[in-house]
Design goal:
single chain, 8 helices, 4 strands, 53% helix, 12% strand
Length: 173
């Protein structure tokens, strides 16, 4: 029998899902907000990258798979930031660029190349995309926190402040 009362159970951290794709110029613009949120909240909130590759971006699906490989190798956010910082290069070079960035960050670039060929992360990307569609994500970046969807694909003005307002309320700050 579990005698733990609800008061003694640790409260789950609030979750902020960032629906993004690595060939999206708007997601690159949103990087400053994501960095600021990570700096402000650290591990007090669970900031999760969610994949929503858009059909208009030819290398977005491969980018999502590469991001998953980077998270598996322990460098997810640095990798995402490095690729987003150079979206034009991804557009020009495609998958070889994804492997190149992995090498620049000291990750196992050969494993990245293999992961893109064998498709080991496809199910994660497909599941994210399906969930995104189910909850009404239509573009990137889109934030979801405490069930509220904030669409940054049209305008990012005031989005970080709105996310902070919700996060502070959830954290009791």
């Amino acid at each position: 029998m579990n005698d733990a009362s609800p008061a003694s159970t640790p409260q789950a951290r609030p979750v902020l899902d960032v629906w993004c794709e690595l060939q999206c110029p708007d997601c690159r613009t949103a990087l400053d907000d994501v960095r600021a949120l990570r700096a402000r909240y650290g591990d007090r909130i669970d900031l999760r990258l969610r994949h929503f590759p858009l059909e208009k971006h030819k290398h977005a699906f491969a980018g999502a798979q590469a991001a998953e490989e980077a998270f598996e190798q322990g460098q997810g956010w640095p990798y995402v930031e490095a690729v987003l910082g150079r979206v034009e290069e991804l557009g020009r070079k495609g998958e070889p660029f994804l492997v190149e960035v992995a090498g620049e960050l000291g990750l196992d670039a050969e494993e990245f190349d293999t992961a893109l060929v064998d498709g080991r992360h496809i199910l994660i990307v497909d599941a994210d995309q399906a969930e995104g569609k189910a909850i009404g994500v239509t573009g990137t970046p889109t934030y979801v926190i405490d069930g509220e969807r904030l669409d940054g694909g049209k305008s990012q003005d005031g989005l970080r402040e709105r996310v902070e307002e919700i996060a502070d309320r959830l954290l009791g700050s």
